[in-house]
Amino acid sequence: MAKKVILSGMRPTGRMHVGHLAGVLTNWVRLQDEYECYYEIADWHALTDDPKKAKEVEANVMGMVRDWLAVGIDPRKAVIFRQSYVPEHAELHLLFSMLVSVPRLLRNPTFKEKLAELRKRKGYTKMVLKVDRLSVEDELEQILRFIREEDERKALRMLQSVLNRVRDEVLERITTEVALDEAAIPAEVSYGLLGYPVLQAADILLYKGEVVPVGADQLPHLELTREIARDFNRTYAPIFPIPEPLLTETPKILGTDGRKMSKSYGNAIFLSDPPEVIERKVRSSITDPMKVRRNDPGRPEVCPIFHMHKVFNAEEAPQIEEDCRAGKLGCVACKGRLARVLIERLTPIRERAESFTDEEILDVIREGSARAKEVAERTMGEVREAVFGREGIGSHTDS
Fold first, then answer.
1. Tens of pLDDT along 289-340?
2. The CA-based dihedral angle spanning residues 153, 155, 159, 161, taken in that order and rounded to the nearest 10 degrees
């Protein structure tokens, strides 16, 4: 029985940290034995937030794949490929974009989150739709004159005319000027950011992905891919499977400052960190602010250190939780335990990562991308025939 196809990927934005290890990479290692896996280096997606960082992508690709191999992603079991090495992604994205409305993309939860982040960063505290005051003084004076003359019919007719004109002008301005108002959508929002879920759908469906590993909070993102697959199949030909979610539990990993772990926040513990750096980062991490002294009862549920204990030190976590709540375990000792556990877990990964040469990593990417391109070309052959016909625009002939 053929294995089902999985497509999953990451944007090359930097080295992998322990949040990636717990949330994605450990799962990828397991899945590569159970499914036909395509693991994508999503370098085009990496430009959606800031296209000016394109020159950073190359180094980030190398570091990310180095970490993938170090944790156990095996290029003999899974296809590791670079998105931009397979231009069929862009072609399918273009065709899919014809099937998706702008209002549908504006409802995408991730786009809304990115938009909120941009507004906050640029100082937008609320969305204000600016419509200039409409000039109706002359009409109002005429209406008042009809009322004074007790000609209600003329007054009502004039009032209705004014209301119709105001309505038409407001609608016109909403659909033109206001739609482009930076208070509604900041200028930093690119077409690529708005359309990135369409490219994501192309990524999945180009390989006829049947299963997509997602957390429960990501289900709305996958639904757009499913809608596009159904719409294409109805409009042209039943080429694409409707991908199903593979719900995966993503452990909660907080950064050293208590926020979500992220390279951009400067709060991450990286797989490539040497022991002394891991120890320093753990030692400087925040804990429960209410636990000031060693004997104070703690609240493990708000402590980033305990969240990491639950994931990387699961065997001892119940006892650590009990001792923390009872005031028997101080934060310094608790951090020391976590640092030792992380150093023991991450040292072999770091050493394996350092053992790969750049040429070996490039070979993995080139070979994986060539394998991915073979599949992509077959799919696009079917797509072109379905959309245009064998002799139509975009079809590849043997002449």
1. 888 888 999 999 989 999 999 999 999 999 999 999 999 999 999 999 999 9
2. 60
How many CB atoms lie under 10 A from the CB of residue 73? Answer: 20
Determine whether domain 5-108+189-252+357-388 maps to CATH 3.30.70.1150. Answer: no
**3-class DSSP assignment, residue 246:** strand
Element (H, E) at 39: strand 36-41
Tally DSSP H helices, then E strands, for the chain. 15, 5
Whether 79 and 37 have beta carbons less than 8 Å apart is answered as: yes
User: Which fold, 273-355?
Assistant: Tyrosyl-Transfer RNA Synthetase (1.10.240)
Q: How many C-beta atoms surround the C-beta of residue 109 within 10 A?
A: 14
Q: Which of 144, 158, 5 is nearest to 78 (CA)?
A: 5
Helix, strand or coil, per DSSP, at residue 244: strand
pTM for the full predicted model: 0.82
Cα separation, 154 vs 135, in Å, equals 20
Q: CA torsion angle for 92, 95, 96, 99 (degrees, to 10)?
A: -170
Decide: helix, strand or coil at residue 245. Answer: strand
Report helix angle 88-97 to 219-235, nearest 10: 80
